[in-house]
């Protein structure tokens, strides 16, 4: 025969747990509707700024954005060719003492590059290979090159400066970190297909963009209900996505920084329950201090996993 | 006298095996469910602030410390209330201290599994996560045993073992969280 006392105790525990869980669910879903970012930046959700919209120039159909690496048929040179829309550049290397840099253009799939000392390269480029001839030392060398996995960083801001973001592409994979330095942040993961970059994250976050020349334009959604147009440019070090996963006050803490090429850094630390501005990151050694302790952040690569499935 | 009853009731005890198995499996299911939910649910980082404490962390630490105090009462009363000379109020104290203790832990565990999740990034955190699941599983198993199993046919070891697991896992959970917090960050509210 069942006794009711212990089962009532059990029932009341379950009831209290259910009430608290419901309260948590309601409160945690509220901020995304209330959109605190709107208060932080009243100028939010404006139309794309002049720089963002005007720079999206019409580009010839299916522009290539890829790095190709290969050799001449007799193995005289190694060649690396970077194609970014209508522009292209190449490095030739014939050993330690002999290298040349070539620059030029791409038109209708035809690559024409020239360098010093009468060195030149002509070829036809497709998304899968570049074939052609290299002219050097008064001779011509046939060559072929295939797409290489290349890491590139694009860094920039949304048009109303609501958020700062950095995107790292590596081959056909890409990651991004977008944040406002205070309370809004999102990690994004996705792919590069042709010149299209498509990333997604948790809580409705996402990014879509098009590579155009040396720029990346598109829209970024740090979380449901907030979508901003952005412009990002191919950026050298120290630009990039930086991450640290540490323990603070016993809480798993994840810090992200989006760093622009001039060293400007915007980051958010998620300390278990709270989002706070990230501590300043030393861009020389990637170190930072928090609560008196020293830590090191890592530069995130496009192949890394930043959004747990 | 009790002993002779237990031995003679031996063969007939089988008919009560089902409720015991159901109780223990129920406890296991709850422990696993909590663990899996805490692991799969994406931690929100959301914190329900409780007034009067410096941080949600300290609110949780003091709630679980209060639960530990009531758990000590549990141990003291459980060890004595089966004695023939035990006063009747001892059982009442045992029940109500247990009810208060478990209810004090509910806001803590909800915050844990909803906002933080099942984490494994250090030994302390891993032990805490596992013991937290075990604590609730053992509690559910003990309540189901008390409610479903006939007291006279219940194996003598069942309640002490389940109660012991509940108490020890609570002590472990408290030692890996509240005690750790007090010793590393200071004893304050």
Element layout with pairings:
The complex is a heterodimer of chains A (309) and B (189).
Chain A: H1 4-34, H2 36-40, H3 50-54, E1 65-72, E2 78-84, E3 87-93, E4 99-107, E5 110-114, E6 120-125, E7 130-136, E8 139-148, E9 151-158, E10 164-170, E11 173-179, E12 185-193, E13 196-200, E14 206-212, E15 215-223, E16 226-234, E17 240-248, E18 251-259, E19 265-271, E20 274-277, E21 287-290, E22 293-296, E23 298-299
Antiparallel strand pairs in A: 1-2, 1-8, 2-3, 3-4, 4-5, 5-6, 6-7, 7-8, 9-10, 9-16, 10-11, 11-12, 12-13, 13-14, 14-15, 15-16, 17-18, 17-23, 18-19, 19-20, 21-22
Chain B: H1 2-8, H2 17-40, H3 56-80, H4 89-116, H5 123-148, H6 158-175, H7 178-185
Helix pairs in contact in B: 2-4, 2-5, 3-4, 3-6, 3-7, 5-6
Overview of the molecule:
The complex is a heterodimer of chains A (309) and B (189). With 309 residues, chain A is mainly beta. Chain A is built from three helices and 23 strands. Chain A has helices at residues 4-34, 36-40, 50-54, and strands at 65-72, 78-84, 87-93, 99-107, 110-114, 120-125, 130-136, 139-148, 151-158, 164-170, 173-179, 185-193, 196-200, 206-212, 215-223, 226-234, 240-248, 251-259, 265-271, 274-277, 287-290, 293-296, 298-299. In chain A, strand 7 and strand 8 form a beta hairpin. The relative contact order of chain A is 0.12. The longest helix of chain B has 28 residues, at 89-116. The model of chain B is unreliable at 1-11 (pLDDT under 50). Chain B has one domain (31-185). Chain B contains seven helices and no strands. The interface between A and B is large, with 32 and 44 residues.
């Amino acid at each position: 025969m069942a006794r009711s006392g212990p089962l009532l105790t059990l029932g009341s525990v379950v009831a209290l747990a259910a009430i608290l869980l419901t309260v948590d669910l309601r409160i945690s879903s509220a901020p995304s509707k209330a959109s605190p970012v709107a208060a932080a930046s009243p100028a939010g959700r404006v139309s794309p700024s002049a720089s963002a919209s005007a720079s999206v120039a019409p580009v010839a159909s299916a522009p290539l954005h890829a790095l190709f690496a290969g050799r001449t048929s007799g193995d005289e040179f190694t060649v690396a060719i970077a194609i970014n829309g209508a522009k292209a550049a190449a490095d030739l290397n014939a050993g330690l003492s002999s290298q040349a840099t070539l620059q030029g253009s791409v038109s209708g799939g035809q690559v024409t590059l020239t360098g010093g000392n009468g060195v030149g390269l002509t070829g036809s480029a497709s998304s899968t290979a570049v074939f052609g001839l290299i002219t050097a030392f008064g001779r011509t060398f046939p060559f072929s090159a295939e797409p290489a996995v290349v890491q590139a960083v694009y860094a920039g801001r949304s048009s109303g400066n609501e958020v700062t973001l950095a995107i790292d592409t590596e081959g056909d994979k890409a990651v991004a970190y977008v944040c406002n330095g205070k309370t809004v942040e999102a990690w994004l993961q996705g792919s590069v297909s042709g010149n299209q970059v498509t990333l997604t994250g948790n809580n409705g976050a996402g990014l879509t963009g098009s590579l155009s020349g040396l720029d990346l334009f598109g829209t970024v959604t740090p979380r449901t209900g907030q979508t901003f147009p952005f412009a990002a440019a191919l950026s050298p070090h120290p630009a990039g996505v930086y991450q640290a996963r540490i323990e603070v006050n016993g809480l798993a803490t994840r810090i992200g920084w989006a760093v622009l090429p001039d060293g400007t850094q915007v980051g958010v630390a998620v300390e278990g329950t709270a989002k706070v501005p990230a501590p300043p990151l030393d861009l020389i050694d990637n170190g930072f201090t928090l609560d008196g302790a020293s830590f090191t952040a890592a530069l995130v690569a496009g192949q890394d996993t930043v959004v747990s499935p | 006298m009790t002993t002779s009853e237990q031995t003679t009731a031996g063969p007939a005890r089988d008919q009560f095996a089902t409720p015991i198995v159901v109780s223990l499996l129920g406890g296991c299911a709850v422990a696993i469910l909590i663990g899996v939910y805490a692991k799969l649910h994406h931690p929100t980082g959301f914190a329900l602030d409780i007034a009067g404490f410096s941080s949600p962390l300290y609110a949780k630490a003091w709630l679980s410390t209060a639960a530990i105090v009531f758990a000590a009462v549990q141990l003291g009363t459980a060890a004595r209330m089966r004695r023939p000379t035990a006063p009747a109020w001892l059982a009442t104290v045992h029940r109500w201290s247990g009810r208060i203790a478990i209810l004090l832990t509910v806001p803590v565990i909800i915050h844990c599994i909803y906002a933080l999740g099942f984490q494994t990034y250090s030994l302390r955190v891993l032990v805490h996560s596992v013991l937290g699941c075990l604590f609730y599983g053992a509690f559910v198993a003990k309540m189901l045993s008390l409610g479903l199993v006939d007291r006279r046919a219940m194996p003598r070891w069942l309640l002490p073992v389940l109660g012991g697991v509940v108490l020890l896992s609570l002590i472990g959970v408290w030692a890996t969280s509240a005690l750790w917090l007090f010793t590393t960050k200071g004893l304050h509210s």
